[in-house]
Amino acid sequence: MNAFKYGPNYGGNLASIHNTFDNQLVSEKSTAALSQSTENMMVWLGGQDMFQLNQWGWIDNSNFTYQNWSPGNPLNATNYMCLALGVTNRYWYSIDCSTTLPYVCEFPPSA
């Protein structure tokens, strides 16, 4: 997935979410940034289940303490190991990492 490469190329990472406020903010900003209909739209976040099955983590190595999974998620399958945010319902989904989606990156504050 190219999204995992974009952020680090510019000094950032795919976004990690640590509370309800951040989840809402990313959802609202994503909705505003997308020019097409956002119904059923998802965006990549930096969550992965790559290292140990059913052990989710953020690619920036921050703590994975807040969760907002859609009912039935995360899926316990070896091909659904990346995390996407539903921008209208604000739920998280485990989906195939090869799925083409827009993505949200975060960068450290500039001096």
TrEMBL record:
It comes from the Eukaryota. Residues 11-106 form the C-type lectin domain. PANTHER family: PROTEIN CBG13490 (PTHR22991:SF40). The keyword Disulfide bond applies. It comes from Acrobeloides nanus. Gene3D superfamilies: Mannose-Binding Protein A, subunit A. This is C-type lectin domain-containing protein. Keywords: Disulfide bond. The lineage of its organism: Eukaryota, Metazoa, Ecdysozoa, Nematoda, Chromadorea. SUPFAM superfamilies: C-type lectin-like.
